[in-house]
Amino acid sequence: MLESNTYGGNATIRWGLFLVLLLLADGLKAQVDIEISSGVTTEITGDLTIEVNGDWINNGTLEPGNSLFVFSGTQDQNVLNVEGSFYMGEITKAGGNVICLSDLTIEGTLNVLSGDCDLNGFLISMPNGGLNEAVEQTVLGASGYLVRQADFGIAAGDLGFGFHLWDAGDIGVADVYRGHDPQAGNGNLSISRWYRIDSPVPLPNSADIMIRYDDSELGAQDENALSLFKSLDNGVSWELVVGSLDVILNTFTADNVGDMGLVTLSAFDLSTTSCLWDLDIDGDVDTADLLIFLGAFGCSFNNCVADFNNDGETNTEDLLEFLGHFGSNCN
Question: I need a surface site. Which of 13, 143, 262, 289 has the fewest CB within 10 A?
Answer without folding.
Answer: 143
